Structure formats: structure tokens, C-alpha cells
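Figure S4 source data
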Amino acid sequence: MTTTTAPPSSRTYTSLRAAWIPLAALCLAFFVEMVDNTLLSIALPTIGRDLGSGTTALQWVTGAYSLTFGGLLLTAGSLADRLGRRRVLLVGLGVFGLLSLCVVLVTTAGELIALRAALGVAAAAMAPITNSLVFRLFDDKALQMRAMTVMIVVGMSGFVLGPLLGGTALAHVRWEWLLVVNAPIALIACVGVRLGVAADRREDLTDDALDLPGAVLSITTIGLACYAATSGVEHGWFAPLTLASILGAVAAGVAFVRHERRTASPMLDLGLFSHGTVRGAAIAQVGTSIAMASVMFGLILHFQFAYGWSPVRAGLANLPIIVTMVAATPVSEWLAGRFGHRVACLIGACFLAGSLAGLSWGVDHGYAAVAVCMVLMTVGLRTVMTICAVALVDAMPSNRTSIGAALNDTAQEVGTSVGTAVVGTMIAALVTTRLPAGVWSSDLVASFFHGERVTYALLAVVVGLVAAGGALSLTDSRSVEEHA
């Protein structure tokens, strides 16, 4: 097999090594999107002191990014399928880098929140396209699977390592540098994409008119749904603002479905959900993200508050997830090649549910028990996430791959919001509505462990049903088997 680099005008590459320039660029773009979700979380106390902001404002420093990012994913994917995937990605990277430099001008919490919201918009223009362009690099299904594996490992590494990288950097530089560093990363990614990814071909894009009403309704639906999850944790699920957000999301969602069924050029062709692979992969991805977000959010509290660990040590405690993401590659590829997508994802769903059930027992049995459950969960994540991402995009028409990747990312964003909301609500209901700073009393630690046991037991059932239910709709495809 040759490893010579294909020129940018050619269609595909013949190995991962040959595609190292565009693959590294796409990984950098995906990494910076994901790390920005969690990077500033560790710096919030410092930001609060510097900008004189309260707790609610600090919550929106992170929440504003997630809100605009999640709300615009489908719209960005739809634009990319019409205007050109590489073109939209290059614009998104450029805007993301320039906006990151603007942090040096920030003097108030309101300005930082607005900047974070704008960064979420730029990240939404990047996220679905980085994934869909992976499929443009290779024709071979095995190479697509391996490239997607690399992307997921890099992206999840950014999500998990955000607090660790942020905590380490804060020991040496001001918090603004956590955003400024995005600019050179975005520039390097731009150069790599420009040099290594083939230009968009007119026949690979759709000529359908942009569905502006559908875009507005989808943004409203997803944005209000994400906000409702945040508001439910912060203000309570029966607070007027939370209930209004839930009702607004439902109303906008119903209007979106009605509009998409009637319009001649829908942003998201709902008929695609009649395809079992599309429907099942999206549902299973919701399950994986519920598991990932709930464990990440819960264990951050567990390590720093119940154990009293420093942010850096708590970040290092998550390394089993990263190591397993890489080490589990042969396992998930063997499962898919041996049993097909449906059975492999069912096995992955069992790992997810089993690991959450294990955490329900292991949270008060020391770090070793927790680490074993993290490893088992990551094997399940690695298997389900990669197979479903490949299966979903592969099942889409060739001129809809970006909206397929956006649907994949949106399903994960929905799952992330649900997982975080469930953990936050359960901890508030079973333990305390306000987590005290400093060393916890033994009674509060015992109460926290009890809340975790109940929460993870509930999540084991929810994630198992959602992920397994989605897996049952997949096919027995073995598209990732090795080729001679």
C-alpha cells in the first residue's frame, strides 16, 4: 500500500499516514472545539475575582458557549451542504481564531459572556464539518473507521483534559491566555485543511434553497431545550423560567416538525428517520453522551469535593478515559468486524450500563473501583460512538453528509445536556442545593456518596435502554473489517 501524499485536488488518500496533514488539521479543529467546552471551568474563580462577577454570571461564561454551539449545529451543517464544507470550515476556523484574540479587550463579565456566545457560533460552524470531511479523505471503510477513531479520541481528550490543561496553565499565565492560544491553533488547522483537503465539488453539494424558517425553529428548539436543562439545575424544574423554556422548546419543536414536513426544501429531511440506521445511530449517540456527561460532571464533584483533591490531581484522575480511548481501538474494531454494527453496539451499551451500575457501588469504595468503571465505560463509549458516527454519516445521501454529521453532534449535545441536568438535579435533591467550599464534613460526604449511588443506578437503566434501543435499529454491517 502506498503512503505517498495525495495532491489536494485528488479525491481520496490510501492510508492514514498519507493523509496526516489534513487529518491532523481536522483533529486540531475538533480538539479546540471540544476543549473550549471545559477549559474555562477551572478558571471561573479567577475570572470572577478579575471581572468582579457573581455566580450566575460565571455560570453563563460556560453556558453561553454550549447554548449557541448546540443550537446552531443543524443550521451550520445545512449551510455546509449548500455552500461547501471546506469553505464553511475555513471561515469558521478563521472567525474562531480572531474572536479568541478579542479576549484581551474584555473588561466585564457581560463582555466575556457575549464573546463566549460568539465563539460557540464559530465552533458550531466547525464541529459537524470536521467529522464529515473525514469521510472525504478515504473511500475505504476501514480507513474511515480508523480516522473517525482518531477524531473521537482527540475530541474526547480535549473535553476530558480541559480542566487539567486549564489548571496547569493558570499556574503560569493569566486566564486570558486560555482563549488566546486558540488563535495559533486555528491558524495551523486552516493551513492544514487548505493544503490537504480536496476542494468542494459542485456535484457533492445540494442546490436546495436554504430553509430559513427551519433554521430559526431548530435554533429556538435546541437553544431553549439546552437552556431549560441549565435553568432546571440552577433555579429548579418548577421555576417559571424553567417551565417557560420547556414549553417554548416543545412548541418550537412541534412547529419545526410541521414545517419540515410541508416545505419543499427542508433543512432536515425527516423522512431520513425512517431509515433504521439514521434513527438508531442518533438515539444511541444520545445514550453515550448521557453516560459521558453524567460521569464527567459527577466525578469532577466527586474528586474535588468529596476527596478534596486539587484541580490538577482531579484532572489527572480522568486519564483512564483517555488511555482506554486509545487502547480500546482493537476491541471495538474486532467487535464490529466480528458481529456487525447492531451486536457490537449492543455489547457497547451493556458496557455503558454496567459501568454506571458499577459506579453506583464503587463511588464509596475508593479510586481504584472508580477507575475500573471509567475504563469499562470508555470501552462502551469507544465502541458505540465510533460505529454510530460512521454508520449515520454513511447512511446519508452524498450531498447531505454535513447535516448527517450535524445530526450526530446534535444528538450528542442533547445527551450531554440531559446527563448534566440529571446529575445536577439528583445531587441537589438528594444531597444539597449548595455545595460548600473547603473540606466537607463526614456527614456531607456520606450524603454525597448516597446521592451518587442513587443517581448512577438510575442512569444505568436510562443509558442502557436508550443506547440498546438505538443499537437494535442498526444493521449487521461489518463495514470496518480489514482489507488486504
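Figure S5 source data
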Amino acid sequence: MSPNPEPQSIQSHLKPKSLNPTVFWRLAEDIPKPLNTGLILTSIALPLLLWWLVTTFIKVDPKFLPSPGNVLEAFGRLWSSGDLLKDTVASLWRVGVGFFFASLFSIPIGVMMGSFPSIRALLEPIFGLMRYMPAPAFIPLLILYLGIGEEPKITLIFIGVFFFNSLMVMDTVKFVSKDLIEATYMLGGNRWETLTHVIVPHALPGIIDASRINFAAAWQLVIVSELIAATEGLGRRISVAGRFLKTDEIFVGLIVIGVIGLTFDLLFQYMLQVSCKWASQKK
């Protein structure tokens, strides 16, 4: 009769063997640059390939889903006529002005709300209330107060960005470690020095990231704002194309907006890397 196996050997046989994680499934770690580049290219190429396959091998009415070739033709037509450039410049100007003024006011107010509980108690309730009011709901009032020019369009973008950005900046500043603030006081710093040399630099990455997120909201609102008696703009271009079932032009407008938004998103990320190198978590 064979001797009884030791308990330790039995547990080693029963214990499931864990697989070593592959490079793809690394948790909270950087992946190799070639893999990162390949995945980025795949995320763009795969949808385009599926789009081409569907429109090539499946009979789809171009009014519902134009082929990539149809969209390229529409792009060339709109670009050669100069309409696409005018629409793009008009939308960029509206988004740029509205977002600039929203950031100009929301970032200092958000920093103050996050730094001083008294300011937060005074403003957070009304800002929270305004945040839940959809910005397009203000369109009738904006037309009544400001007319149908550029002012209501820019103001709509301002309203849609200002309150969200203020509260997101507030949350970023609010969670700055109290140990840093107390250490600054112990080293002889006053409130102003603590605010400008500790709180703001520590929260700067979160402030830039909040602005990056809310810049996307500004682009969503420009489509709505250009429904207010606009004669130029990508939103107007999409709206007019929809009325006449020019789906290829709708795709052109959507793709241009996506490319512009992605470009600015990368610029925000570059700004974050350049201005906040100390906050990088590279190993």
C-alpha cells in the first residue's frame, strides 16, 4: 500500500495554475510603443474597413449609408467650392470664443470653490442646479435677449461649458492633500502662496484634463447653436444636408468635426505632458 501523499503536495495539485499575463493584458502598466501604435492604427482602420466591406458587398441604399468613395467625392466637391472651409472656420470661431470665455471664468471660480469651503457653500448649490439644466433649453431665451446673430450661439456654448468646467475644477482642487497645505504653512507660507505655489500646481493636470473633456461638449453644442438662423457652420451644413437626404455630406461634416476634435484632444494631452512633466507617472 502506497503511503498517503503529504497535504502540501495535494494542495499543489488542486491549486489552479495561473497564467502569466501577456503584454496585451498588463494591468496599469505601459505597453511597448510598437503595440501601442498598432492598436491605435487598428482602432481607426478597422471601422473604415468594415464600412467599406458593408457598402461594397451588401446592397445598401447610399441615402442610408454612403460608401467611403461617395463621402470622398462629397468632400472634394464641398472643398473645391469653398463651402467646407467657410463652415469649418465659422464653427471653429464659435467654439473657440465660447470655450475661451467659459474657461477664463470657470477655472478661477472652480479653484476658489475648491480651495475655500465658504465659496463652495455659496456657489455649489446654484452651479449644481444649473448643471442639470440642458443648455439647448436656453435657446428661446437667448434669441429673445440677444437676437439671432452670433451672440446667442457663443453664449449657448458658454453656458454649456461654464458650469460643468467650474464643478470639475472644484473637485480637482478640493482633493489636494491637506498634508501639503499644512506643510506649506509650517514652512512659513501664507494663504496666497499656498494657493498659487501648492494648490494650483498640484491641481493643474486635473484642470487641463477637465478642460479637455469639456471642449468636446463645446463641439456638441455648436451643432445645436448653429440651428439658430446660421448661414455658415458645420452644424448648419449637416442640418441642410439632412433635409435633402444628402447623407454623404452629413458624413463629411461628422468626420471633419471628429478629426478637429481629435486634433484638439491630442493638443490638450501634449499641453499636459509639456506643462506638467512632474506629474507624469512614467517608470
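The first helix runs from residue 7 to 14. The mean pLDDT is 85.
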